[in-house]
Amino acid sequence: MSLFKSFKLHLKKSGETLNISKARNILDVLIEEGIEIDYACQNVFCGRCAVTVLEGADNLELISALEEDVKIKCNLGENQRLTCKLRMKGDVTIEL
Ligand code: FES
């Protein structure tokens, strides 16, 4: 599969849909597109870039031990993911 293949990220609240290459992380694209999202470290440390995944959770990279640790530290829910290092492998809908 080409690195340039892209998938659709649906933003539930705004109704926008972004095309995101499988090579890019979600947070970078949200920032580029001017979508309002909280973030700080951009390195899976602060937990501020969390979003709630509504559909397509299986189309996201598997959660790493590091992300799991930050989610626990920040009391994030099971369906929340940190977007700063998160890549897609299929279409996803998030609450944003
Ligand atoms: S911006 Fe800090 S964990 Fe993603």
Descriptive overview:
With 96 residues, the chain is an alpha+beta fold. It is built from 2 helices and 5 strands, in the order ββαβαββ. The protein has a 5-stranded mixed β-sheet, with helices on one face. It starts with 5 loop residues before the first strand and ends with a strand. The model has no long low-confidence stretch (mean pLDDT 96). The structure holds FE2/S2 (inorganic) cluster (FES). FE2/S2 (inorganic) cluster binds next to loops.
SSE map:
Blueprint: E1 6-11, E2 17-21, H1 26-32, E3 50-55, H2 65-73, E4 80-82, E5 92-94
Parallel strand pairs: 1-5
Antiparallel strand pairs: 1-2, 3-4, 3-5
Bound molecules: FE2/S2 (inorganic) cluster.
Please provide the count of β strands. 5
Query: Any idea of the CATH topology?
Result: Ubiquitin-like (UB roll)
Report how far apart the termini are: 28 Å
Q: Which overall shape is indicated by the principal axes computed on the Cα atoms?
A: globular
Please work out how many helical segments DSSP would assign: 2
Q: What Rg is obtained from the alpha carbons, in whole angstroms?
A: 12 Å
**CATH architectural label:** Roll
The CATH superfamily bears the name Beta-grasp domain
Bound molecules: FE2/S2 (inorganic) cluster
Class based on secondary structure composition and strand pairing: alpha+beta
- What's the arrangement of strands in the largest beta sheet? 2-1-5-3-4
